[in-house]
Amino acid sequence: MSNIDLTPSIRRRYRAEQRFKVYCMSAVAFALLFLAFFFIDLVSRGWPALEQAQLQTEVSYSETVKAGHYRKAIDKSLQKIASRGWLRTLPLYLRQHPDRVGDKEVMWITADASVDQYLKGHQSNLKEKQRKLVDRLYSEGRIRLGFNWDFFTRGDSKLPELAGIHSAIVGTVYVLFLTMIFALPIGVMTAIYLEEFAPDNRLIRMIEVNINNLAAIPSIMFGLLGLAIFINFFGVPRSSALVGGLTLSLMTLPVIIISARAALKAVPDSIREGALGVGASPWQALWYHILPVAMPGILTGSIIGLAQAMGETAPLIIVGMLAYIPDEPSSVFEATTVLPAQIFTWAGEPLRAYAERTAAGILVLLAVLLSLNGLAIWLRRRFERSW
């Protein structure tokens, strides 16, 4: 009799379990569909930035061009569709290479952004006469869409056809290198002290609570802290890689400390007890036995913290790293920008060519972030030990 009474209840539970599985699978499918749509849309918008309209013409290296009249380097009919920014580089080139004065050379030069958008099928501000000229040159094979090397070899520019991410990448490398130098040793040593040597008293518990709270506050607060301490108090140059690295170090420290403590805590107590039991000092037990086991987790947390810092924009904007930087910095004290800030700047530009570069910059940033996360996973699996 009791079995008959329980059957409807069991069936209801089974039906609820099946519904729950369907809900979970639907949520996963929706998330995957969203990610697929996101990446497809991003690639479709960013891929055109890797192609740039190029114009084949004869360039004349004359004294007139060397004096600054760069437009006269090419035929008058092509001056309106060629990039003004590219032509402006000719006088400086001739001053650096005076032996080229008087020469002529047929070469591919960068076309204007309006020509580039017209060839890609987008709305363009070309006049009817210029469109006919572009169509004729395209039919003759004198205009093409070539790989946009300038996107990777040039810095920011007021002309979208010449805008690139080179200076932002160099600035990002500087900032991440400084972040790693400042945050990694301090964070790991703090974690070692708190986990292995610190006494269990009220002060240590207060420090641990504050570290956990710092890992959860908005990143823009670290920007305000960096502005107040490093710029206003210590006088670190504004917009420099140094102030950016120090600011991101403050933001990354709690993540490194928490992850390093978790890695140290995961080491079995039998390793500690065995090392101490054979006469090793606490420091010897830590250095020769505990750290080698915890190192994969420490490296993983540190790399993930650096990857998170690389994607941050808000704290760097507060310390002035949103400046227009056409050239790469030569030192950590010069004004620089980073890739997320460069993307943010392009996103505010009204021209469609900048929208393409925004999406392409996001693709580059995602590729680097995924690579760093992949490296963290590989290091963890490569050096992980089972007990």
Please characterize this protein's 3D structure.
- The chain has 387 residues and is mostly helical.
- It has two domains: 49-148, no CATH class; 166-383, MetI-like fold (Orthogonal Bundle).
- The protein is built from 15 helices and three strands.
- A three-stranded antiparallel beta sheet has the order 2-1-3.
- Helix 7 runs antiparallel to helix 12 (282-310).
- The longest helix is centred in the first third of the chain and has 45 residues, at 2-46.
- The chain is globular and about 85 Å long.
- The two termini are 50 Å apart.
- The mean pLDDT is 89.
Q: Share of helix among residues?
A: 55-70%
The end-to-end span amounts to: 50 Å
Q: Using DSSP, what is the number of strands? A: 3
CATH-defined architecture of the largest domain: Orthogonal Bundle
Q: How many H/I helical runs?
A: 15
| Structural class based on helices, strands and sheet pairing | mainly alpha
Question: Strand arrangement, largest sheet?
Answer: 2-1-3
CATH topology of the largest domain: MetI-like fold
The residue-averaged pLDDT reads 89
CA-based gyration radius: 29 Å
Portion of residues in beta strands equals: 5-15%
- CATH level 4 superfamily of the largest domain: MetI-like
- Low-pLDDT parts are none
Q: What is the multimeric organization of the chains shown?
A: single chain
CATH class of the largest domain: Mainly Alpha
Please trace the helix and strand order, writing H or E for each element. Answer: HEHHEHHEHHHHHHHHHH
Largest sheet data: 3 strands, antiparallel
Overall outline = globular
| Number of separate structural domains | 2
